[in-house]
Amino acid sequence: MPDKKILIIGPFPPIINGVTVSNDFLMRSLILQGKKMSKINTETGSIASKQGDKISLMKIISFLTVYVYIYKIIGKNKVYMTPGQTFWGFAKYAPFVMFCKMLGIPYFIHIHGGYLCKSYLNLRGTKKKVFDKMINGSRGLIALSEGLAEEMRQTFSNVDIYVIENFYDIKLIEEPLSEKQNEKVRFLFLSNLMLGKGILDFLDALIILQNTTNIDFEIAIAGNTEKGMSKIINNKLISLKGKIIFFGIADFTKKKELLYWSNIFVLPTWYAMEGQPLSIIEAYVTGNIVVSTWQGGIKDISDYDTFFRAKQQNAEDLSTVLIHVIGELKSLMPKTIDTAKKTQMRFAPELFISKIQAILAS
């Protein structure tokens, strides 16, 4: 088959985020499909709300070690890349692109976020030409949602644009979902604890709830903490002492437990690179009400009765939305079953894989 030998260039675990999880899942799935897979792991091991805007010596050194694996492109039928979205996050893949072009190997670029077009439109001169050559030389760009794809079509008119929505791990729904009966309000924040993901807005909103209402609630927070954020997060957690049932990094087993324990998932993100968070999809398919923003591609997956929009960087508004949801909790819980059924079909992992295969085979 013309796409049997495939190379994935992008970040992989152990760092956990939407891109690493997606790349790992794709590689394992295509191996099971009989593809001869290999990878170049570009993960450098840091998380931050602001990424790639500036280059540093440490960033250069950390990524130079990745280029020693460029030889893996040789002999491949197709190359699939998941670069960053700022200039440096994207341009550091230029050597891989140049080598693909030199060898005549088709490559595809999957953008896991909604910032690439904004980044491109702010560029001038040589930097813009680098983007143009990399994008126009590809066999296509892949977007996470139709809204993000439309932005790409308007910005990059000379390249094919595909849409592949995110997915969930099938092991999350091994048992039939039933309506959650717990009367207590149980909030879940399941994401890297980054300023841009809204962790401080979430905690401030909960403190408002605690100080101004008689609502009885519990909280679980799981994820890696952004550098420099630990002290301020811990200080806010002290104010919520007695309500935190989990605070730490969750493996898959713990994550699944928390998703079925909770009934309201909250992600008040304003992260510039946001795409289509896997955590929101996971919350849907496990019967949670979702409270989030329309950052990135979230608007395209918000058309459910169990989704509630909050303003960005506004703890007061978030607390108001949460109070409203809590007031409607009893009537909303039956609707979560309908949402779960719809999203389990819409974001089925086999659909994600089949669409990737179709694109790579084109």
Number of strands: 12
Report low-confidence residues grouped into runs of 5 or more. none
By helix and strand content, what is the structural category?
alpha/beta
What is the CATH third-level topology name of the largest domain? Rossmann fold
What is the CA–CA distance across the termini?
12 Å
Strand order of the largest sheet: 2-1-3-4-5-6
Helix content: 40-55%
- String of helices and strands: EHEHEHHEHHEHEEHEHEHEHEEHHH
Overall 3D form: globular
CATH architecture group name of the largest domain: 3-Layer(aba) Sandwich
Number of helices: 14
Number of domains: 2
Radius of gyration, CA atoms, in whole angstroms: 21 Å
Describe the protein:
It is a single chain. This protein is α/β, with parallel strands linked by helices and 362 residues long. It has two domains: 5-167 and 348-360, Rossmann fold; 170-346, 3-Layer(aba) Sandwich (Rossmann fold), CATH 3.40.50.2000. Helix content is 42%, strand content 15%. It has helices at 18-32, 57-64, 87-91, 94-103, 116-121, 125-136, 146-155, 199-212, 230-239, 252-261, 278-285, 315-327, 329-346, 349-360, and strands spanning 5-10, 36-41, 78-81, 107-110, 141-143, 161-163, 185-190, 217-222, 244-248, 264-267, 289-292, 307-309. The strands form two sheets. Strands 2-1-3-4-5-6 form a six-stranded parallel β-sheet. It has a six-stranded parallel β-sheet with strand order 9-8-7-10-11-12, with helices on both faces. The longest helix is centred in the C-terminal third of the chain and has 18 residues, at 329-346. 39% of the residues are buried.
